[in-house]
Design brief:
Elements lengths: L1 H30 L5 H8 L3 H17 L1 H11 L1 H21 L3 H29 L2 H32 L4 H4 L1 H15 L14 H24 L4 H23 L13 H32 L3 H7 L1 H21 L2 H18 L8 H28 L6 H30 L9 H30 L6 H4 L8
Helix pairs in contact: 1-6, 1-7, 1-9, 3-6, 3-10, 4-5, 4-6, 4-17, 5-6, 5-9, 6-17, 7-13, 7-14, 7-16, 10-11, 10-17, 12-15, 12-16, 12-17, 12-18, 14-16, 15-16, 15-18, 17-18
Length: about 475
């Protein structure tokens, strides 16, 4: 009996390892491609618009398929959808590395985004179904640490592979990792799905949510290039509003909806999703424009830029699991509030940097930001998933990931608009550095304010959830 309990306990952590494999690949591809773009452009003789679509195509399909992936995981099985998504992503990565033309590479990146959108919600759903609430925060902390590690080392890995080997290897490295993840998943992960009542596929909900998320993400990503007031961007925003409004109306009238909107009546779930959107809005733009500032203004290489941010990465990796354990003990509310306050302080410190800044000038902001990100992201994720019944874990995870993706896209767009408003010369001009830095500082102060709003939202809405096995409550019920 003891041997069986030990084996089950050990299997849980292998399950976490398997979903972390998949998550690492998804998050790595959010950042690893950016530093390789100049080499890809030279190798395939790409135009500027084709180069942008290498990044945009992935982000768009990723965001579009998140809610669909979560619902399909609850309906047909989270392990099944995780393996399917991972297989699609791995095959598409191989196709990216072998792509002979711009069109082939963009198409493969679009398929990569589909795989990521299917796989990502399943990872958190599997964790929620596998780990009891008393261990869930710890597991989610490791999940967040894996995500942060992949996001932060992406530029460094991309720089090294591009400069020392070939840009195609930023995609080829996904193949052995993906195959290993599939094999471990088949062995370690127990299948789980929504068995709460009769299930069926909500095609109107899938279609309206997909169109709405696609249009919204496209508008946010392309707004600075086309202009916020351009007919294309305004029409895409209108389409997103109409489609998402139709989604809400359809879900309220469906007998078996794709997304149970009553989940948002739980203030912890609603507050955690809003906080996640705000922290992503504050930090994703910083990750993107910090890299541009360091390379274009200070003059670091791609490898040096990736290495510069390692202190933040390491701190997130070290603190995130501890923040998860602390969430299990004391709840998420004040951890999120305190973490986002630290994030705000970090952004203010970043706003003091200029063209003469050194690594030691960056270090306080990096350390404060790493600690704040770890303290806020892990408890936010744990709070949102603890507020959702296990049967709805896939959809709950999808909503949380959609909040992060849309918030991040909006953050990049807002920071880009603020920076662009102050830059009136070409990047080759001697005045570019000063103008970019001035706009960069204003954007950082705006992001710091967004982070403080997120702290207030968390403190005001998120509540500690008692563990069902200890309290005798249905899972997801608040005390």
């Amino acid at each position: 009996m003891k041997a069986r309990i030990f084996a089950d306990e050990n299997r849980k952590w292998w399950t976490l390892a398997a979903v972390s494999f998949g998550l690492f690949m998804i998050m790595l591809d959010n950042t690893v491609v950016n530093v390789a773009l100049p080499s890809i452009q030279r190798s395939l003789d790409l135009s500027g618009s084709a180069l942008e679509w290498i990044v945009v195509g992935y982000a768009l399909t990723f965001a579009t398929f998140i809610l669909t992936g979560g619902k399909l995981a609850d309906l047909f099985g989270r392990r099944l959808l995780f393996v399917i998504g991972l297989a699609i992503f791995t095959a598409a990565s191989l196709a990216c590395g072998l792509a002979p033309t711009a069109g082939a590479l963009v198409a493969a990146r679009v398929v990569q985004g589909v795989g990521a959108g299917i796989m990502n919600p399943a990872t958190l759903g599997i964790i929620t179904a596998t780990f009891p609430p008393r261990q869930r925060g710890t597991a989610i902390g490791i999940w967040v640490g894996t995500s942060a590690l992949a996001l932060a080392i992406g530029p460094l890995v991309g720089g090294v592979l591009t400069e020392k080997v070939n840009w195609s290897w930023i995609f080829f490295i996904n193949v052995p990792v993906g195959v290993a993840g599939i094999l471990v998943a088949r062995w370690a992960i127990n299948e789980s799905r929504d068995t709460s009542h009769e299930q069926r596929l909500d095609l109107p909900g899938l279609l309206s949510s997909g169109i709405g998320l696609f249009a919204l993400t496209f508008a946010l990503i392309e707004a600075n290039r086309h202009g916020w007031g351009s007919p294309l961007i305004l029409s895409m925003f209108a389409v997103s509003v109409l489609a998402l409004a139709a989604f809400v109306v359809l879900e309220n009238r469906q007998r078996i909806p794709m997304l149970d909107l009553s989940l948002f009546r739980n203030p912890t779930f609603a507050g955690a999703n809003l906080a996640m959107s705000l922290v992503a809005m504050a930090m994703f733009g910083v990750f993107f424009y910090n890299s541009l500032f360091v390379q274009n203004v200070i003059g670091y290489s791609a490898i040096q830029t990736g290495a510069l941010f390692l202190p933040m990465t390491l701190l997130i990796v070290l603190i995130a699991p501890q923040a998860g354990r602390l969430t299990d003990r004391i709840g998420a509310r004040w951890l999120i509030g305190g973490g986002m306050a630290l994030v705000s302080g970090s952004l203010v410190l970043f706003a003091q940097l200029d063209a003469g800044s050194t690594f030691w000038s960056f270090l306080p902001a990096l350390l404060l930001g790493g600690g704040g990100m770890a303290m806020s992201m892990t408890p936010t994720t744990a709070a949102a998933m603890s507020a959702v019944p296990t049967d709805k874990a896939g959809v709950g995870s999808a909503v949380l990931n959609a909040s992060r993706q849309v918030g991040g896209s909006l953050g990049v767009a807002i920071m880009g608009a603020i920076i662009a408003s102050g830059v009136h010369v070409s990047p080759r001009s001697q005045l570019f550095g000063d103008q970019f830095t001035s706009g960069y500082h204003r954007a950082l102060y705006a992001a710091a304010g967004i982070a403080l709003v997120g702290a207030s939202v968390a403190i005001g809405l998120v509540r500690k959830l008692r563990h069902p096995e200890a309290a005798g409550l249905p899972e997801g019920a608040s005390a």
